[in-house]
Amino acid sequence: MTATTSTPILQARGLVKRYGHVTAIDGADFDLLPGEVLAVIGDNGAGKTSLIKALTGAVVPDEGEIRLHGKPIQFSGPQSARAHGIETVYQDLAVAASMDIASNVFLGRELRRPGILGSAFRMLDKKRMRQEAAEHMADLKIGLRSLSQAVETLSGGQRQAVAVARAVAWARSVVVMDEPTAALGVKESGQVLDLIRRVRDKGMPVVLISHNMPHVFEIADRIHVHRLGRRAALIKPSDYSMAEVVAIMTGALSVDETGGTVVADSKAAKAAGVQAT
Amino acid sequence: MTATSTPPSTSTPYAELKTPTTVRRLLTQPTTGPLVALLLACAFFSVSTTQFLTGGNLSLIVQQVMVVGTLAIGQTLIILTAGIDLSCGAVMAFGSIVIAKMAAEGTVPPLAAIALGLIVCAGFGMLNGALVKKIPLPPFIVTLGMLNVAFALTHIYSEEQTVSSLPGPLTALGQTFPLGKTDITYGSLVTIALFLLLAYSLSSTSWGRHVYALGNSPEAARLNGIRTSRLAIGVYTVAGLMYGIAALLLISRTGVGDPQAGQTDNLDSITAVVLGGTSLFGGRGSVLGTFIGVLIVGVFRNGLQLMGVASIYQTLITGILVILAVTVDQISRRKAR
Q1: What is the DSSP-derived secondary structure letter of residue B161?
Q2: How near does any CA of chain B get to the CA of A22, in Å?
Q3: Of A38, A10, A42, whose CA–CA distance to A26 is shortest?
């Protein structure tokens, strides 16, 4: 990416979140650059979810600063993050199964008819919602037979596509995707990865939380490795092997200022078959 | 405002996207099955009895079902949110006693007594909703408890006495006006108007969409910015208001305040909702379906009566119909998955 020198879209410095004696976020930093796919990886319990929740307003951090487009910002809840153009695609998709695709894209943000029909009778503008939903689908090259199909009639990959299209339709700054390929087969995963690429190609930065290392290496421009509540490394997938990244994730290797790796736990590093550069 | 209410859109047409034809949409509508059943029942009774297909008889059917029909509107709203209300008949009975006794004793003017009855019923609904959402408790248990509370209050307040000699405004909706050669009660019009109002609200407003979304998945609704507990309490309150209106219709039809009224109406209203194709699992169905369901029950009762079938067989057939309807719902859900 050529954008390494530009202002990060979303940035965090020194985030801390404690739950009683447990410190879920322990001085974490975060940087998302314009137009990139940033993968966030980490072992179970590393605090990925807490970090993402802080960045999408679901959790209010105790300490630290979040900047959006370079300006300090505080989210009071998920709604306020959404109002600032940060959309999240949740792991369980958060779709209403019996409702049609257009209704799902506009759920919670329905459009009303102009004039008295909309203001006094609160009438929905179904035609416009269908049209605009169709445009968003076309925009991302998502082929669906009809937008008045119920979401429950779709395959897992198609549902994921609807959830992504909804997020992209409303996001103005960032789309965050939580394990978008976790529940999908090989072919459908490939379709979703293609979809993520198209979202990036529209210029929308994507934060991708994933456990799937091959997917991460296939699609991410940079990888944020999270460990023990903070960022352990921020690297380019081209500079490291998958084994090295896993070693950083588990603490066998650590990354120094020059980007070289240092053996932090020689036994673990040996077991993982990696060595310092 | 435009930035937040409308996503930025491009103008690329998408040729592959087609809306299904009207015929196909009609065939896949969940109300199609119940409607066909209703029409078949009507055809059957028209052939087997001469009195069935007369204006007077059809008007009578609507009068017979208007109370349960109005209860069923509230029941539909609650079932759409994946809840259930066992207390509707008892709440209506309490509302009717409040209205009748207050007005008959002259403690308050008749119209104030009516307003008070509506508020009491809406209050019961709101309390149900708050217990279901705020604590939270299962709707089945909450409304089962409320059924007993309302039933007991009805008998305590009425002192087991039927209230009669009611002032005029209480029975005004029982008055009729001629339409052609048939007399129609104003109460029937109120019921039909309520069905149309709620059908519109559910199908064509954001509120309606949110009710369906809540029934589908409360979590999805919440993540999409819908304030689910406010919405649910609102739904139960509106349902309570419907029971209040049903109480007034009940008084206008019988001319008395009867503490024994409405004891099986909770199950009858659920029957109508299920026959109308609304899923007990929430999120799918419509009040128009319920209207058809109410008419199915009414037509069967009336038609079998005209044929001289004993009333216990009417109950038997209604029971079988309900089990059939729930089976169809369950199978179609499994197919959808």
Answers
A1: P
A2: 26
A3: A42
Asked if the Cβ–Cβ distance from B209 to A144 is below 8 Å, we say: no
Q: Is residue B22 part of a domain?
A: no
Return the bridge partners of A11, or none. A31, A67
Q: A25-239 sits in which CATH class?
A: alpha beta
> At B133, which CATH number?
1.10.3470
Inter-chain CB pairs, A–B, below 8 Å: 113
Contacts with B225 from chain A: Cβ below 8 Å:
78-79, 82, 108-109
Its pTM stands at: 0.86
Question: Has residue B5 been placed in a domain?
Answer: no
Query: What total number of domains does chain B contain?
Result: 1
Other Cβ atoms closer than 10 A to B111: 12
Compute how many other C-beta atoms are within 10 angstroms of the C-beta atom of residue A187. Answer: 8
Q: Are strands A71-73 and A86-89 parallel, antiparallel or unpaired?
A: unpaired
CB atoms B9 and A146 under 8 Å: no
Using the CB atoms, write b or e for A249-276: b if 16+ within 10 Å.
bbbbbbbeeeeebebbeeeebeebebee
Tell me if B217 and A136 make a contact (CB, 8 A cut-off): no
Indicate whether B26 belongs to any domain. no
Give A88's contacts in chain B (Cβ within 8 Å): 223
The residues pairing with A100 across neighbouring beta strands, listed in sequence order, are A150
Which domain, by its residues, includes B288? 53-329
Q: Note whether A203 contacts B: Cβ–Cβ < 8 A.
A: no
* Angle, vertex CA A105, rays to CA A99 and CA A106, nearest 5: 90
Cβ–Cβ contact A97 with B under 8 A? yes
Q: What is the pLDDT along chain B (337 residues), one digit of tens a residue?
A: 344 444 444 333 333 444 556 666 666 677 888 898 899 999 999 999 999 999 889 989 998 999 999 999 999 999 999 999 999 999 999 999 999 999 999 889 999 999 999 999 999 999 999 999 999 999 999 999 999 999 999 999 999 999 988 888 888 898 889 887 788 899 999 999 999 999 999 999 999 999 999 999 998 898 888 999 999 999 999 999 999 999 999 999 999 999 999 888 998 999 999 999 999 999 999 999 999 999 999 999 899 999 998 888 888 888 888 888 888 877 876 765 5
Tell me whether residues A124 and B204 touch, CB distance under 8 A: yes
- Other CB atoms within a 10 A radius of the CB of residue A202 amount to 12
In terms of CA atoms, which chain B residue is nearest residue A80?
A: B225
Q: What is the DSSP string of B177-195?
A: EEETTEEEEHHHHHHHHHH
Q: Can you tell me the distance from the alpha carbon of B55 to that of B49, in angstroms, rounded to the nearest whole number?
A: 14
Cα–Cα distances (Å) from B143 to A142, B67, B91, B116, B132, in that order, read 45, 19, 10, 21, 9
Q: Is A96 on the interface with B (CB under 8 A)?
A: yes
**Domain contains B299:** yes
Which residues in chain A have Cβ-Cβ distances shorter than 8 Å to B26? Answer: none
- The reply to whether residue B14 touches residue A137, judged by beta carbons under 8 angstroms, is yes
